[in-house]
Amino acid sequence: MKSPTITPCFGVKDTQASVDFYEKIGFTALPAGDNPDDDLRILLFEGGFALMVHREDQLREWLPVLKDTPIGAFGMFYLAVSDFDAYVAKIRPLVNVIKETEVDGRRIFYFTTPDGHVIGVNQSQEW
Hints:
Blueprint: E1 9-12, H1 15-24, E2 27-31, E3 40-45, E4 48-55, H2 56-62, E5 77-81, H3 84-91, E6 96-103, E7 106-112, E8 118-123
């Protein structure tokens, strides 16, 4: 698997709770390395790399500049799915829906993760 050009790594309160959440909404989790003391996980979506989650205290130790940064993010992340309607129907009861909208004929479904990250789901497209 080829890594993406930019790799999101979310700081989370509880890595296993985050993995459990993402697995419920269709992601697959893999260990990120061989160190059993490093609570970092890789998450795949539809077989491709999506993001990583890392327990907040370990991430703050790894990058001390983040020591006072709250969990969550200002902004949002987008998840392109192969079947928008089926995926949204599947996850709707499992997530905190914050907005549904349409822009230029494309529907977007926004939800938050347990750690406050905002994810917008849209139909995948070719550029």
